[in-house]
Amino acid sequence: MTRGQHDRYPRVRRWSKGYHRGQVDAFVSNVEVSLSGMIPMPTATDIRRAGFELRRGGYDTTAVDAALDELEGRVLAVQRLSAGRRGRADPAADAAVLREEISGSYMQRFPRAGALRRGYDLDDVDDFVDRVLVALDGGDATGRQLAVDDVRAAVFRPRRGGYREDAVDDALDHVVEHLMLHQPREGAVGPQP
What we know:
single chain, mainly alpha, 4 strands
């Protein structure tokens, strides 16, 4: 990998593909300006769903994704300071709202794709949602907590007539935001911002 003087992130090799540098730089600059209060701030979901073209010699995708995760955390921290009662988060109330959003009857938790359309496999999604619900109730018997990376890495098989992908993705976005706001980060000590 090479890194030029003005590159914000490491670049992939000349003939490998990475994120379009101009698109990444413009997006990250806009988010940073918004954090200073000069323009409206994007939501954490906007950052999570940002997409960039792949180009030869572009930015390393892993480095950019890690930087976007950090930006998402900063945006959520700013939003948390301006939300809730006098800027105080209420994890129990937030978990209750999230629990209500995702805890429906098995195989009926989310809207379904049409009979001829592909969606997410109902069993895969319901099994993962059960895991999320256990985490919202304080974790499993082993004490293992659900991590943000667990939610981001969740993969569901495609099935005709399954759950609509956009509905499941929106719910999982809310789970990610909840975890980022209310679970301590690895290596962090004391209350989180």
